[in-house]
Amino acid sequence: MLKNFPNHPRVSLKIAAGSIVALSAAFAAAQPQTPTSTPATIESAIKLLPQPRELRDETPLRLTGGIRIIVEGRDPADLFAGKDLRDSLKDRAIATQEAGSTRRSSPSVELMRLSSPTSRQLLDHAKLTFDEAMKPEGYVIVPSTNGLTVIAATAEGVFYGAQTVKQLIVGSGPTAVLYPATIRDWPAMRYRGMDDDLSRGPVPTLAFQKQQVRTFAAYKLNVYSPYFENTYRYDSNPLPAAPDGAMTRADYTELAHYAEQFHVIIVPEQEAFGHLHNVLIQEKYADLAETPHGSVLAPGNAAALPLIKQWFTELAAVTPGPFMHIGGDETFELGKGKTHDEVQQRGLGPVYIDFIKQISTELKPLNKRILFWGDVAMNEPKLVPLLPKEMIAVPWTYEPDPKGFDRYIQPFSQAGMETWVAPGVSNWSRIYPDNNIALPNIQGFIRDGQRLGSTGALTTAWNDDGEGLFNQDWYGVLFAATASWQPGESSIPRFQQSYGEVFHDDATGSIDEAQRELMAAHALLASVNESDANDSLFWLDPWSVDGQAAAIKLRPILHDLRLHAERALELISKAQASQPLREPDVIAAMELGARRIDAVGLKFQFSDEIIDGYAKAMKASGATATRKDVDSFFYGITDTNGRCQDLRNAYSLTRDLYEQAWLKENRPFWLHNVLARYDLAIQLWTKRGYQFAEAQSQWHREHTLPTPAALGLPAAH
Q1: Cα–Cα distance between 265 and 193 in angstroms, integer?
Q2: Where are the beta strands (DSSP E) in 389-496?
Q3: Is the pLDDT of residue 293 over 50?
Q4: Residue range 457-486: average pLDDT?
Q5: 334 close to 251: Cβ distance less than 8 angstroms
Q6: Helix boundaries (H) for 333-389
Q7: Those residues with Cβ within 8 angstroms of residue 596's Cβ, 6 or more apart along the chain or in another chain
Q8: In 3D, which of 698, 557, 526, 677 has the Cα closest to residue 617?
Q9: CA-CA distance, 312 to 288, in Å (whole number)?
């Protein structure tokens, strides 16, 4: 069947017609796979994210004349799923016809419920079962004579089946093809989501948050948790929220209702214990702090619980979903101020646990399940059983762990509490997310969470340095979506071979290779620098004391580091030249990451070359030296193509690209705090260029040069 499509991007010639890929037993067995089972290693002719549990591929159908989208019945949710599918295909210039179209020759996609007599006939004919485990969110896709049918028991199942159909339609315009596969699929975890930091710099626009919701849903994530410290404008307590630097009630309400259509639950996270510095610096709330203008609420303060209740009462009123998140992590200041004596007497754990219990009791009338971070309580396993059983513990850790992740989960699961695991995309304070860390962390933590009965995965993205761009995080986000839907341990190599084609429609494989090049650059930095590709390397002055210490470690790898970054840029360009790519803003953010990594290598290389060039100018500036002898070295330091100008230009270019990328997703709020760092770096190398030009002029006038120290130069290495 594949001989007519030998070069199609989603086709592997390793699989023959009618072959079956099954992550459980054969269809005939039709036994539901438990969430804790481990999938077999598979090869599929079709690249899908997440990979369905059971898949059999059929002969591709060309969509030269478009495709008919049919929704059986008039259920509003199913009609929306059909509309969403049509809108997606329209964006790809694929014509669609309604059910009543006279063009019957066009392939069709029909969405129907399991309760339909037609669906039962189709399942019986295909010898497929729809097991009990599949009913909440699962679906079956059955090929028909000229297309396929999606069958599901619920609106969620119909919607997720339609999302898989989007990936079964490959390409764009009249050259697109449909792969009418036979699929049985259902999730391993009930809740699959992202926790997005809105409180350390970037605050996304409502339009971008809607885009996030659509994309999350397309890859079967069903939870979005916006993280607030002071970035929700409460009607009762508006003071901490900056103008245009916070979500309003109207924003949040619109987003929550928008997300419902896509079966995405909004879980608001308002920190209610620690991480409240931007609230507690307001004098109105200063007395609530454990330490003066600190970050942690002091348990025992009579005004603390009423403030928390006000916050969450307002959020609950506009939150249709069943969950709210109180944070509760990293309460480092607890016991160092107002509770010092109590902590000394009773211990840190009891004071912490008691306050979490008090918050839970205060919020009980809101009738929401309360989530909290598990990092503090896990260190007091004997006290965990004292927590209300209806709370949901969210253990988190962000590093790969060859020993596994049981110790983060078991203090809560053994106490009878529901758990969601929280890996991370390793984006915080990074030049670009470190997927060498993120992918195995996500893989292992979600695998162990499934085995230990965790019902959810809440993967995190943090913006500790205030510079994070969510469009750089999608690689980790999509792997988390894959790992939380698929049972057992998800394959990193398989994901890496599918991402570019599925997410960007890249037929060349170049985007996947570019991501691997950036991972290789990270690995090089990690081999010599304990902070890896920390953002501080991008801003570090290479002639400072810290900069010189870093330079000693980095010099052996700078050549290869730059080659990896530049190879990534070439691969991105190759993919863009081959065909229009989907998600162009994500590609632009990836390119920015590669340029920033390259700029780190360039900065340390060129700063050394300036030091060496000036030492040679000093050596050449003897009594018999000619102007030409000395100027030849200065031309490489400060001139049209001088190293100082090159470094200025590198920061100027990345500044422009960064500003463009920021405004694609975020409000202007906070942007100037980041651009100021670019401006200072541009000014630094501009000023140094002038200083060297003045030194050159001094030699022309006086035949003397300033000492290296007078110009801020360290000793030649």
Answers
A1: 9
A2: 392-394, 418-421, 456-461
A3: yes
A4: 97
A5: no
A6: 340-346, 348-363
A7: 431, 432, 538, 654
A8: 698
A9: 17
Residue 636, classed as helix, strand or coil, is coil
312 Cα distance to chain centroid: 26
DSSP, collapsed to helix, strand or coil, labels residue 139 as strand
- In the chain, count H helices and then E strands: 21, 20
Pairing relationship of beta strands 54-56 and 20-22 according to DSSP bridges: antiparallel
Sheet holding 169-170, edge to edge: 61-62, 177-178, 169-170
Interval 141-163: pLDDT, tens: 999 888 999 999 999 999 999 99
Share of the chain above pLDDT 90, in %: 86
Written in H, E and C, the secondary structure of 466-517 is CCCCHHHCHHHHHHHHHHHHCCCCCCHHHHHHHHHHHHHCCCCCHHHHHHHH
Residue 641's contacts (CB-CB under 8 Å, 6 or more residues apart) are 635
Backbone angles phi, psi at 456, to 5 degrees: -150, 165
Q: Can you give the pLDDT at residue 98?
A: 67
Arch. (CATH architecture) of 191-490? Alpha-Beta Barrel (3.20)
Task: Report the relative pairing of strands 223-228 and 191-197 from DSSP bridges.
Answer: parallel
Largest distance between two CA atoms of the chain: 101
Half-sphere exposure of 286 (CA within 13 A, CB side): 6
| CA 169-175-181 angle, 5° bins | 25
Note whether 634 and 617 are within 8 A (CB): yes
- d(C-alpha 637, C-alpha 455), whole Å: 60
Q: Kindly indicate the confidence band of residue 697, based on its pLDDT and cuts at 50, 70 and 90.
A: very high
| Token reading at 236 | 């009762």
> Which structure tokens are listed for 165?
């159909």
The conformation of residue 399, written as its DSSP 8-state character, comes to S
Q: Mean pLDDT, the chain, as a whole number?
A: 92
Query: What stretch of H or E contains 244?
Result: none
Residue 714 DSSP one-character state: P
- The yes or no reply on domain 2-185 and CATH 3.30.379.10 is yes
Other Cβ atoms less than 10 A from the Cβ of 489: the count is 16
Residue extents of the structural domains in the chain: 2-185, 191-490, 514-711
Instruction: Report the distance separating Cα 317 and Cα 234, nearest Å.
Output: 12
Q: What is the pLDDT of residue 58?
A: 77
Q: Is the pLDDT of residue 283 over 80?
A: yes
CA angle 216, 170, 174 (to 5 degrees): 125
What pLDDT does residue 652 have? 98
What are the Cα distances from residue 324, in Å, to 87, 266, 370, 391, 410?
32, 9, 5, 10, 22
- Residue 322 buriedness (CB in 10 A; 0-12 / 13-18 / 19+): exposed
- CATH says 514-711 is which class? mainly alpha
Residue 38 pLDDT greater than 80, yes or no: no
* Conformational region of residue 711, where left means phi above 0, alpha means psi within -120 to 50, and beta covers everything else: alpha
Helices (H), 582-626: 584-620
Taking CA atoms, 125 is separated from 122, 317, 333, 548, in Å, by 5, 48, 65, 72
Rounded CA gap, 403 and 420, in Å? 19
Q: What's the token pair of residue 692?
A: 């060297």
Provide CB contacts within 8 A for 209, sequence distance 6+: 224, 226, 255
- Assign 604 a pLDDT band (cuts: 50, 70, 90): very high
Q: Is 706 helix (H, G, I), strand (E, B) or coil?
A: coil
What's the average model confidence in pLDDT over 297-312? 97
Angle at the Cα of 309 (from 308 to 312), degrees rounded to 5? 85
Q: pTM for this one?
A: 0.92
Q: Are 260 and 320 in contact (CB under 8 A)?
A: yes
- Structure-model confidence comparison of residues 25 and 44, the more confident one: 44
